[in-house]
Design goal:
The chain has 185 residues and is an alpha+beta fold. The protein has two domains: 34 residues, no CATH class; 140 residues, Agglutinin, subunit A, CATH 2.90.10. Helix content is 13%, strand content 32%. The protein has one helix and 13 strands; from the N terminus they run αβββββββββββββ. The strands form three sheets. Strands 1-10-11-12-13 form a five-stranded antiparallel β-sheet, with no helix packed on it. A four-stranded antiparallel β-sheet has the order 2-7-8-9, with no helix packed on it. Strands 3-4-5-6 form a four-stranded antiparallel β-sheet, with no helix packed on it. A hairpin with a 5-residue loop joins β4 and β5. The longest helix has 24 residues. The protein starts with 6 loop residues before the first helix and ends in a 9-residue tail after the last strand.
Length: 185
């Protein structure tokens, strides 16, 4: 008895399975939609931001927020950037998860072009920063801040590759991540 296979069908099936695996990996790494870099160059502009995302160059002015599911990141009027989850009781059942520890009327949060999240005073002085830009993560040219259901937020970046995923540089839960170094520098 001989086993015959239809070679083109097997090849197409394997290719389709590989594409599904890559797409699923991208979805897991981003915690949502997978993003692919252009085949020959890095994206020159960030895609339109979702209500849970702040792209490079984006700003959260006092009172502005990002939200995903039960989680909300708010640039509060008192000048503190704060992450909250909301329980069954709604706004009255708000639980703090993380905050920048900054104060001052008129402060704003910026995800700078270099990928550094910075809370700045009205005069432009840095009050708090994630340390995910400049010399800290120079090899990560395109970043975004994303709020995740369940009480976390992350700064994610693409690498200089065609891979359809993001690398986590910083999160509210764990701070700086590989490959950015340590906060003790």
């Amino acid at each position: 008895m001989s086993l015959r296979t239809n070679r083109p069908t097997v090849t197409r099936t394997a290719s389709a399975a590989a594409a599904v695996l890559l797409a699923a990996t991208g979805l897991l790494a981003t915690g949502g939609a997978a993003h692919a870099a252009a085949p020959t160059a890095m994206p020159t502009a960030a895609p339109a931001a979702a209500p849970d995302t702040l792209a490079n160059g984006g700003t959260l002015a006092p009172g502005a927020s990002l939200a995903s599911g039960d989680t909300r990141l708010v640039m509060q009027q008192n000048g503190d950037l704060a992450l909250y989850t909301t329980g069954a009781g709604g706004a009255e059942d708000r639980q703090p998860r993380w905050h920048s520890g900054t104060t001052g009327e008129g402060n704003k949060a910026e995800l700078r072009a270099d990928g550094n999240l910075v809370v700045t005073a009205p005069d432009g002085g840095a009050l708090w920063q994630s340390r995910t830009g400049n010399d800290d993560c120079r090899h990560m040219p395109w970043t975004k801040l994303t709020v995740h259901p369940g009480g976390d937020m992350s700064i994610l970046a693409t690498t200089d590759s065609e891979a359809p995923y993001f690398v986590r540089l910083w999160s509210a839960s764990y701070g700086l991540q590989f490959p950015c170094g340590s906060p003790a520098r």
